[in-house]
Automatic annotation (TrEMBL):
SUPFAM superfamilies (UniProt xref): Mitochondrial glycoprotein MAM33-like
Official protein name in the record: Mitochondrial glyco protein
A Pfam family of this chain: MAM33
GO cellular component: mitochondrial matrix
Organism: Metschnikowia bicuspidata
Domain of life: Eukaryota
GO BP field: cytosolic ribosome assembly
Length: 156
């Protein structure tokens, strides 16, 4: 499971509904911004070591009862090569690589099967809560480290 601490810690928690006196256009723009800010990308690779292949999922993590939403997934015939590529380039997919179809465009039965598979592999609300908690702790550590360094710098 791969995720960006900053991206997860920046997931927006929606504020109360706008008052009716607000202009409709402003309300619409705010709702769009709220929606876009409410997701964080989480990458999951589920592999079979004996055959060195696996499925790579790009998931959207939302702070809601749904937790993870599948954005897309694809098959990786050589997991070792894929992980080496990720490590060397810090990219999960090159611009030329096919990411797979949008999950929402797939047959409903396949969507249900893949969501069940993810839950069976532990990609569930418990993992979502762990990701949020871990990101919060790491963000707090980074913040304290920054304050400590700034304090040392200013005291010189």
């Amino acid at each position: 499971v791969f995720f960006d601490i900053d991206e997860v810690s920046d997931v927006y928690f929606p504020s109360p509904k706008l008052q009716e006196s607000d202009v409709a256009e402003e309300k619409f723009e705010n709702e769009i911004a709220d929606y876009e800010a409410s997701f964080a990308n989480v990458k999951v690779l589920i592999s079979r070591p004996q055959s060195n292949d696996g499925l790579f999922f790009n998931l959207l993590l939302q702070d809601s009862e749904e937790g993870f939403l599948v954005d897309y997934f694809n098959y990786k015939p050589d997991v070792s090569e894929f992980l080496a590529q990720v490590e060397s380039s810090s990219m999960f997919l090159s611009n030329a690589e096919y990411q797979g179809p949008r999950f929402s465009n797939l047959d409903d039965a396949l969507q249900i099967t893949m969501e069940k598979y993810l839950r069976e592999k532990g990609v569930d609300m418990e993992l979502a809560e762990f990701v949020f908690s871990y990101a919060e702790v790491k963000e707090e550590d980074s913040y304290r480290h920054l304050l400590d360094n700034v304090s040392k710098y200013l005291s010189r």
